[in-house]
Amino acid sequence: MGKVVLGVTVGVAVAACAVAALVVGRRVRSRKKWKRVVGVLKELEESCETTVGRLRQVVDAMAVEMHAGLASEGGSKLKMLLTFVDNLPSGSEKGIFYALDLGGTNFRVLRVELGGQRSNVDPDVEQQPIPEQLMTGRSEDLFDFIASTLHRFVEKGNDSVQYSITKELGFTFSFPVKQTSVSSGVLIKWTKAFAIKDMVGKEVAGALQQALARKGLNMRVAVLVNDTVGTLALGHYHDADTVAAVIIGTGTNACYWERTDAIIKCQGLLTTSGGMVVNMEWGNFWSSHLPRTSYDIDLDAESPNPNDQGFEKMISGMYLGDIVRRVILRMSEESDIFGPVSSRLYVPFALRTPAMAAMHEDDSPELTEVARILQDVLDIPDVPLKARKLVVKICDVVTRRAARLAAAGIVGILKKIGRDGSGGIAGGRSRSDIKMRRTAVAVEGSLYTQYTMFREYLHEALHEILGEDIVRHVVINVTEDGSGTGAALLAASHSSSGSVQLISFYTVGASNNDDGDEQMTETSTTDRPGVARTEEEEQEHQRMAHVTYLLNAIVDNEQMKFFIFPKLPTQCDNSQSSMAANIEVTMAETHADLKILLKKRPRRLSKLVGGLQRLKLTVINLNVTTADEMALYSISVKIEEGCRMNTADEIAESVEQVLLGIQQEAGFS
Ligand code: BGC
Questions:
Q1: What is the pLDDT of residues 434-448, one digit of tens each?
Q2: DSSP code of 178?
Q3: For residue 527, what are the contacts with CB-CB under 8 A and spacing of at least 6?
Q4: What tens digit of pLDDT does each residue of 285-295 get?
Q5: Rounded distance from Cα 667 to ligand 1 centre (Å)
Q6: Which of 32, 250, 341, 458 falls between 20 and 30 A from 484, CA-CA?
Q7: Which residue of the set 192, 313, 416, 595 is catalytic?
């Protein structure tokens, strides 16, 4: 009996030990798996880091790329497209105007009645999702669908009675278009979910006009605009301080008001206002300073447009959900915290951004919305609270990065136009010297308007980058249906005017062998975002993006006289020497402006730019003015870290040495 009792006791003890060992083993394994998952999150956080220092680098890169894109065709991944919109609606517009807005997941038809005197714009709007097959089918089908929708819309209104009168139509087409006038342009490429092959390279307004004719609609496409441009028009209509517009929705982009003389690639552009709206197409912006993760690289590689729209793929609504899906998939593969790997996790775009935003903003203590979406959308049931919290964190990291990068993009524009309080890219004046003007930016797009966390992160970053003193002067205004309504307003303001005259274009070509003709930039980029480039290539690109060789064909004789009789103390006049160059340098903080007057010589300019780079002076802007045998180089440089020169005189002397070196090498007398 005693033996039996002992036997049972020993047996129970052994079993208890085995269970305990199992439990401990399982706990250790589960702790290890959890550690792995936390490691994935940590790695994500690190590679998405957007410190204010990094954001400022993005700001600078954006401003520099803007310069490069304005300097020459292909000078930057930023296309900086002319819009031929040289006047924004004044408020005096009158009449009934229609607009079509195509570009996101929805398509809108609008009718706007304007009464002059900056009356309230209260458009009739009809919205319709675009059938998916039309986004990738034939262009004729897409345009017929648009025209039919418009036809039904017009018929419903009261205007059909006066149908003998041609109606003016604004067409918002939210893709990169090379405009040939305010009402015509050719599609460069599709972005977002559109991919209609036969349309690329075709005239967009023409395709619509033909579809309108097929439907018997008596309408004329008065303006063809990007959605950013429509938004700017409405933003400016409500707030005259509006200088730029940004869309952060399915896709992302910005446009802004630019002086025509700064649009160097289009010499001879005359507008009555002296300015023009430039469509940046910032979705394609790229810089090595952008924090890129392995998920971004995979997303890009698997997208229908690899190596394209790099900035957009980090920011816009089309992609954020998919980045999050990729992170959850990785975690799921590395551990079983989400149970067996759900096959839905392998489906591209299975998690859309609105669902992701809903998880991010779930403030219920049990994260019930997160649980529901994981179950319903990704087919992952019974996720423990701990893992649900992790999902919220992933959404947070991805959204925060996107919003902060968008903020950096906005400040980049402000910097380019001298509204960031720093005196512009070549200004270098200290913040205290600058009297900041009130500056408004119109914003539209569901990510900004409907995603509170996104909006808050964006504002927070604006504060951090600009600082309290400056950010006070910057206003972000949300426009409602601005992309479409603005197009109707522009149709009104441009229907009778034809003020833009294009005299000539300078086009990018091979480098020339004469200073006077050297009109192009070597900044032309391959059409790949940073990943595809090696680090060295990327650095070289960044450097070359600074090196914009700009030719100013308008000879300013007054300026020439000034340099022939130099007056400023920081000049290095070696007119007695064999080189005979007058060099004037003005310096402000980390920037310097060089004015060099000398005799024209072949191939010298590119060597000079190379020499400046070796001196750690990065060329931001370069103008060449010629008259007779003389050339005047006006060069803005950024003084990089490690530059040995501290004063304007030292720079002038070093530049002179560079020029002498070039001269000796070439054997000029
Ligand atoms: C397009 C832009 C557009 C933006 C926002 C981008 O994908 O390239 O033209 O403005 O989306 O809709």
A1: 578 999 999 999 999
A2: E
A3: 77, 307, 308
A4: 999 999 999 99
A5: 52
A6: 458
A7: 192
